[in-house]
Design brief:
The complex is a heterodimer.
Chain A lengths: L8 H7 L4 H14 L6 H10 L4 E6 L5 H7 L4 H10 L1 E5 L7 H14 L5 E5 L2 E2 L8 E2 L2 E2 H10 L3 E5 H6 L12 E2 L1 H4 L5 E4 L6 H14 L12 H4 L3 H4 L3 H5 L10 H4 L18 H4 L8 H4 L11 H4 L24 H30 L1
Parallel strand pairs in A: 1-2, 1-3, 3-7, 7-9
Antiparallel strand pairs in A: 4-8, 5-6
Helix pairs in contact in A: 2-3, 3-10
Chain B lengths: L2 E4 L9 E8 L2 E9 L5 H5 L7 H6 L2
Antiparallel strand pairs in B: 1-2, 2-3
Chain lengths: 361, 59
């Protein structure tokens, strides 16, 4: 290792005993997640030169679920790499200092690294009654988010709550909760919705920034296309069963035991955009649909209201085709498919009737 | 008789503030407050009971 690498992410990984092979495996995972064919070399080269960016993690109206997701990677090598790439200077759930010392850690970053640090926000920001429903160090969440995100290089809103208010903003939104995008305007912001978001997507977003010097491309809702550009339904391993009309109709029935499609059990995969089927969870072990439960649509806008009841079948399914993104599937397309699905239903009903009539005869 | 406040309490999930009344180097009285409220109970009202686990799980 030459002097040129000193103090870089790669240097720090080597000192912690991460092998070159594990490092390259990680770079390949990132390249695959970011959909960059042959990008592993470029990512490796960038991480060999890049210094760790300072990062502060703010928690507001949250359940720490994204923190759990962030810390629960099962492969120790990946955990090491993630914690190395993200030099977390402030995170209430894992930091040693408390009280005034904790506040100082945050102040130090905000003052000394103005315009250079990254912020991850977890949880929504309550605006009702002067923001009294969430205070840290006696300061309202809205004031902290304005100050800290205002001086940051970029803000990453992690999870559904930080994106659009999530569960605290679900009807009747008792505390007037909003996401970062509605709490503070004019900042560089990228959203990683999901309940919780996947640590792979968070890491890939930061790695993209370290490699290319910019945040990844986003859709109209501010979500990176690499993670939110494909529909769950289109990457689902149960898709063939959907196309063949093999549906689970009751928990534990023959179809459920044999991995059939969960659409009739309320799966929201047909209307949800996220890369869960590809990146999966717990280091690629499984994901909800593989485990036998329908998708609850946690990466969709206002999903607690728009996707519930979670066990009710979607009233309409947008069209087939794996090339659409959330922005492409307009209301027109959805309406047309709804009509097609309805027509399909009528044909089935008619067919059913003739069969009944035949039986009567 | 100094009153000290520790906020935020770290290494926990959620938001906690502890205030303590100190007399002669000993804590005489103390108060704990959860400094975040979402109203999940209010949000759960009138929902499909089968969905409640998902909401309550996020507490």
């Amino acid at each position: 290792m030459g002097k040129a690498n000193e103090g870089t992410i790669y240097d720090s990984l080597r000192k912690r005993g991460v092998s070159r092979r594990d490092f390259m495996k990680f770079c390949s995972l990132m390249a695959a997640t970011l959909a960059l064919p042959s990008g592993a070399g470029r990512i490796a080269e960038a991480l060999e030169k890049a210094k760790k960016p300072s990062l502060v993690w703010l928690e507001f109206q949250d359940c720490a679920g994204n923190t759990e997701s962030f810390l629960r990677a099962s492969d120790p090598t990946v955990v090491q790499i993630v914690l190395d790439i993200l030099s977390v200077d402030y995170h209430e759930t894992i930091m040693a200092p408390a009280g005034k010392q904790a506040e100082k850690s945050l102040d130090d970053v905000v003052k000394n690294q103005k315009g250079k640090y990254l912020v991850v926000v977890e949880g929504s920001i309550p605006l009702k009654d002067g923001g009294v429903y969430c205070t840290v160090g006696g300061k309202a969440a809205i004031d902290t988010v304005k100050e800290v995100c205002g001086g940051a290089l970029a803000t990453i809103a992690i999870g559904a709550c930080a994106w659009d208010g999530g569960i605290p903003a679900a009807n009747p939104n008792p505390t007037g909760a909003v996401g970062v995008k509605d709490a503070v305007k004019g900042i560089t912001l990228i959203n990683l919705p999901g309940c919780p978001a996947n640590v792979v997507n968070l890491t890939a977003t930061v790695v993209h920034y370290l490699t290319f010097g910019s945040l990844p491309l986003t859709d109209s809702m501010g979500r990176p296309l690499f993670a939110y550009g494909t529909r769950i339904h289109d990457g689902c391993e149960r898709r063939a069963h959907y196309d063949a009309g093999r549906f689970v109709r009751q928990w534990g029935d023959y179809g459920h035991q044999n991995g059939w499609c969960l659409y009739e059990m309320g799966c929201k995969g047909p209307e949800t955009y996220k890369n869960c089927p590809a990146v999966r969870w717990n280091q690629g072990t499984s994901w909800p649909v593989e485990a036998g439960h329908g998708c609850i649509g946690c990466a969709a806008p206002r999903f607690w209201d728009t996707m519930s009841p979670f066990y009710r079948r979607l009233p309409k399914v947008p069209g087939f085709g794996v090339e659409t993104t959330a922005d492409d599937v307009g209301i027109g397309v959805a309406a047309a498919t709804a009509a097609a699905v309805a027509a399909h239903g009528i044909i089935r009903a008619v067919k059913h009737k003739t069969e009944e009539e035949r039986e009567e005869k | 008789m100094p009153k000290i406040a520790i906020d935020p309490i770290t290494r926990i999930e959620g938001h906690l503030r502890i205030e303590a009344q100190v007399e002669g180097g000993k804590v005489k009285d103390a108060w704990a407050s959860g400094t975040m409220f979402r109203g999940i109970e209010l949000i759960l009202k009138n929902r499909d009971p089968r969905d409640c686990w998902a909401f309550a799980q996020r507490i």
